[in-house]
From TrEMBL:
Any matching Pfam family: PX
InterPro entries: PX_dom (IPR001683)
Span of domain PX: 1-116
Record protein name field: PX domain-containing protein
GO terms for MF: phosphatidylinositol binding
Organism of this sequence: Paramecium octaurelia
């Protein structure tokens, strides 16, 4: 079983990408997702009968991506969502989450470390 958390975020042009950390028994890896991609995962889960926590809402009249404190707040809320989701073993075992993890493994995010 994996634990999933939002370890960080970065701005890519005018978009925000969240670094999602997957920690398994034998491996840990990072992948990057936009809010809309994580919302799509939640929407898929919502179409099934699996138990899931409430997904952080989208700001209707304010652009989150243009405000650092809102992005940080969303990161905290997304992290709490995944923390709660990971506690529901029946949901973590469902095919939608398993496919999400497999997809993340195919799209591992690697950061380069500057060398002196």
């Amino acid at each position: 079983m994996y634990s999933i958390s939002i370890s960080n975020f970065f701005f890519n042009n005018s978009k925000v990408e969240y670094i999602v950390k997957f920690e398994g028994q034998d491996e840990t890896f990072l992948s990057k997702y936009r809010y809309s991609q994580l919302k799509a995962l939640d929407d898929q889960l919502g179409k099934t009968k699996v138990e899931k926590p409430k997904f952080p809402k989208r700001s209707l009249f304010v652009k989150t991506n243009q405000n650092l404190s809102r992005v940080q707040d969303r990161q905290i809320k997304l992290n709490k969502y995944f923390e709660q989701l990971c506690m529901i073993s029946s949901t973590m075992d469902c095919c939608i989450i398993q496919e999400f993890i497999r997809d993340a493994k195919r799209n591992i995010f690697v950061t380069e470390i500057a060398r002196n």
